[in-house]
Design a protein that fits this description.
Length: 322
């Protein structure tokens, strides 16, 4: 239970649910380990820590277990230290959030969770379609990709999807795969994305390359010998559909690529229909292999176990082929 609670805190579990989890399992918890877990948040997200401490104080949690008063003293001292911390002071800061897909696959991501876009990119935060695709890959890996499939990720942003695949490979000691993790923003690639791979102890070497890639750019060729292209939340801007679909077609025609998996949040039905028609215009076929509407249980798991927030809209995963 100590490990699960530590994970939930790193996931930024809603405060009320954190308190309920602690209350319902307080006999199983180590106060020393709980203090250690809470302290680990202090340098990363003081505001979240303050809210958790306030919840513990307001609900008078763990008082019976704290016979010597050490935990209570620590809570009150720390809460007083954080009294002046407020949301406005942290909303533009980096946070390090754990995406826990099961007890074995956990990915840490440095991101700006409250930032929609900055410096002409939306890649500083993790979007729900990335989480959905990652979770689906964890749950259905053998049905979607093979161990020796070389992967190209487009618009990788924080790198969550590729890091999830790399984590699965690491667990299986799979060294057959090459991965090309790309984004159109070179500073994002060399900065935040690079940091996230290092933080998860995934080596960037001959098997895993992080690089800038503009879709449909003659100056930036598609990597060779790619088998599967993946992308998440790359369909929000209809002005990019021509370049995106041209890139997908180029991959399917000029390499050993046999399919593309694109996860899309449907914010606007017309935009989604336009993406489908653009895929067809470029001579490709599409089908939806899963969606939160088709499999409502996947939506529930995503919101209850990983994201802890409502979705902006339905999410689907397209399989695109020639």
């Amino acid at each position: 239970m100590d490990d699960l609670l530590s994970d939930r805190l790193r996931q930024r579990y809603p405060v009320d649910q954190v308190i309920d989890l602690i209350k319902s399992h307080q006999d199983e918890l180590s106060l020393d380990k709980l203090i250690e877990s809470l302290e680990s948040i202090n340098d990363i997200n003081k505001y979240y820590l303050k809210l958790v401490l306030k919840g513990l104080i307001d609900k008078n949690v763990l008082q019976d277990k704290d016979e010597e008063g050490i935990f209570s003293e620590w809570i009150y001292d720390k809460y007083i230290e954080l009294l002046n911390v407020n949301f406005d002071g942290i909303k533009d800061n980096d946070d390090i959030i754990m995406y826990r897909f099961n007890s074995a696959i956990k990915v840490l991501i440095r991101e700006k969770p409250y930032l929609i876009s900055a410096m002409n990119t939306t890649g500083f935060r993790t979007w729900a379609a990335s989480v959905y695709l990652s979770k689906y890959l964890v749950d259905h890996e053998d049905a979607l990709i093979n161990d020796d499939d070389n992967i190209l990720e487009l618009g990788a942003g924080t790198g969550l999807v590729s890091l999830t695949i790399a984590s699965m490979d690491k667990m299986k000691d799979n060294k057959l795969r090459r991965m090309y993790v790309t984004d159109g923003d070179s500073e994002l690639v060399s900065g935040q994305m690079q940091d996230n791979f290092q933080m998860n102890e995934v080596n960037v070497d001959n098997h895993i390359k992080l690089q800038k890639l503009w879709w449909n750019s003659p100056d930036q060729p598609i990597p060779e010998r790619v088998n599967v292209v993946i992308g998440a939340d790359v369909t929000y801007d209809s002005t990019c559909f021509t370049d995106l679909c041209s890139c997908l077609r180029q991959c399917l025609l000029e390499s050993e690529c046999y399919k593309c998996l694109i996860a899309s949040t449907i914010r606007n039905v017309k935009t989604d229909k336009l993406f489908q028609s653009t895929v067809e215009h470029f001579g490709m076929r599409w089908k939806i292999i899963t969606s939160t509407e088709r499999e409502p249980s996947t939506k529930d798991v995503l919101m209850d176990e990983v994201l802890f927030r409502p979705l902006l809209g339905p999410i689907c995963i397209y399989e695109i082929t020639i």
